[in-house]
Write a structure and sequence with these properties.
The complex is a heterodimer of chains A (303) and B (225). Chain A has 303 residues and is mostly helical. Helix content of chain A is 73%, strand content 0%. The chains are: A mainly alpha (303), B mainly alpha (225). Chain A: It holds the Pfam family BPD_transp_1.
Chain lengths: 303, 225
């Protein structure tokens, strides 16, 4: 169903009136909820101007807390994706191997790390680094966060790579075989370059997941990323919890929204492009979720 | 080997029971709220469509950790919202965690459902409208039942992700599996491999059968076209 308005007729006079009534009721309900929240906030003195104004008037709250926190978030995310990409590609290709002794262990590892929560891996990495290495305790949270994120996301990327290669039309392999290429050559010269384009949207979406998961390190491992700045800001700017959370959530939303939009822009470009086979993994296939074979994921409506 | 369990100071099964409870309540809640959001996003009222889109885009892009911490530090400790009263910190933390999990995962349910609606042939809705059914009847009697059948697999993935994401509740002191693992790893530092393997195994036991069972269900109920 490409056009959702198929669910209802073009509104006549009565439907129009009814829609207006629904709108009014909806606005009133929404307004009441909002008023209730604002009322409680005013009651607890969270609406006071001095709780919100530092974010606009005082540059130090940005230079001391928010921007360093954001940079730490980006640092952990960038390190994770850079390490997880080759690792994931390796495992993804291993799962496609013709040899059973390569395929099965790789599959087991990937399935195992996808089945357990990323937080468990962070806890484990943190404890293991503390016990077996002499990484200074300042750096340990970063190492633990990146290790946890790499283990989890490498296994997700392995699935993306596998699905990316499987999404290519079989004629590509057939043609390459017909001109006498060997297995390795088919993979390196024919399949991988096309699969990378097909995977790009899904990979960018995975970056969103990584950025979101760095917040775990801030809340539970003491990594000084964006979220953990809430505590410092509320301690220094007069218990402005709501304001601090709102600003930090907004920064996350804007950052991730930009990444998501970029992913769908890339996807659209590939879909419209004439030079590729048009095979593409939908950007949403893996958002935070486990991964399925591309053909069972229903395609979302394109706006 | 498992002698640290004999002392009886760690209730591993109890912790996993809290995880399961978190997952079940949140799953039911996000299924309901996600369906409502999906209905809003395809409704004929532009305002509701706008609200649905805005909600999904904002909440989906916020880290779950931020949502759950904001529920605890913001809603409870600053604004004093306890959700149905009581003063037991544990119980309130549990409720807030469920609230956060519902708010977050409903967006994924909504998106899965919306793509499921796209798989229903146009003729179904057209035929329903030709019979004179209203929007609600078209949606809830004709389109959504078929859409649900085609999105069992994506919804199963949401459920699995939800089960794993319950660990985030450890951030606000809910005594579930990840919180217990953190404590045990601290006090049983000579057995971190064993402790970690045990908790990893627990989650594998929770998620793998769910995936397999629902994978089988999705094949059975899928509409053959």
């Amino acid at each position: 169903m490409s056009n959702l308005s198929v669910l209802y007729d073009a509104p006549g006079p009565r439907a129009k009136a009814r829609n207006i009534i629904y709108s009014v009721v909806f606005v009133v309900l929404l307004g009441l909820t909002l008023w209730w929240v604002l009322d409680i906030m005013a009651d607890k003195n969270q609406l006071a101007g001095e709780k919100w104004s530092p974010f606009v008037t005082d540059g130090r709250v940005w230079t001391t807390y928010l921007i360093p926190g954001l940079l730490n978030t980006l640092k952990a995310a960038a390190l994770s994706i850079v390490i997880a990409l080759p690792l994931g590609a390796l495992f993804g290709l291993a799962r496609l191997s013709d040899h059973r002794w390569v395929r099965v262990p790789a599959g087991t590892v990937v399935e195992f790390f996808r089945a357990i929560p990323v937080l468990l891996m962070m806890f484990f990495a943190n404890a293991a680094y503390a016990q077996f290495t002499d990484i200074s305790s300042d750096l340990r949270p970063l190492y633990a966060v990146v290790t946890g994120l790499v283990l989890y996301n490498a296994s997700v990327i392995a699935e993306i790579v596998r699905a990316g290669i499987l999404s290519l039309p079989s004629g590509q392999t057939d043609a390459a075989k017909a001109i006498g290429m060997r297995k390795g050559q088919i993979m390196v010269y024919v399949l991988l370059p096309q699969a990378v384009t097909a995977m790009l949207p899904a990979l960018v979406s995975q970056l969103v997941v990584i950025v979101k998961d760095t917040a775990l390190g801030g809340a539970l491992l003491g990594y000084m990323e964006l979220l953990s700045q809430v505590r410092l800001i509320t301690a220094n700017y007069g218990a402005n919890t709501i304001a601090a959370f709102t600003v930090i959530a907004l920064i996350f939303v804007v950052l991730n929204y930009l990444l998501t939009s970029f992913a769908s822009w890339v996807e659209g470009r590939i879909r419209r492009g004439k030079r590729s086979t048009g095979a593409v993994l939908h950007a949403d296939t893996n958002t935070e979720m486990e991964f399925d074979e591309p053909h069972v994921v229903p395609q979302a409506r394109k706006e | 080997m498992f002698d640290f369990l004999d002392s009886g100071q760690y209730d591993v099964l109890g912790a996993f029971w809290v995880t399961v409870q978190l997952a079940v309540y949140s799953a039911i809640g996000s299924l309901v709220w996600g369906t409502v959001l999906a209905a809003m996003r395809v409704s004929p009222v532009p305002l509701m469509r706008a609200f649905g889109t805005a909600y999904v885009n904002v909440v989906r892009n916020t880290p779950l950790t931020v949502i759950i911490l904001a529920a605890s530090l913001g809603l409870f400790q600053t604004l004093g919202i306890t959700l149905a009263g009581g003063s037991d910190f544990e119980v309130i933390g549990f409720r807030l965690a469920v609230l956060g999990l519902i708010a977050y995962h409903a967006t994924f349910v909504c998106e899965a459902l919306r793509s499921g609606i796209n798989t229903v042939p146009v003729g179904q809705a057209e035929a329903a409208r030709a019979l004179g059914l209203s929007f609600f009847q078209v949606l809830f009697l004709i389109v959504l039942p078929q859409a649900f059948r085609s999105v069992v697999a994506p919804l199963a993935n949401v459920l699995i992700a939800l089960t794993k994401n319950t660990t985030v509740a450890a951030a606000i002191g809910v005594a579930e599996a990840a919180a217990l693992m953190k404590t045990m790893i601290e006090y049983e530092s000579d057995a971190i491999f064993l402790v970690s393997a045990m908790f990893a195994f627990g989650f594998v036991v929770l998620t793998l059968p769910t995936g397999m069972l629902l994978g089988w269900v999705s094949k059975r109920v899928a509409v053959k076209r």
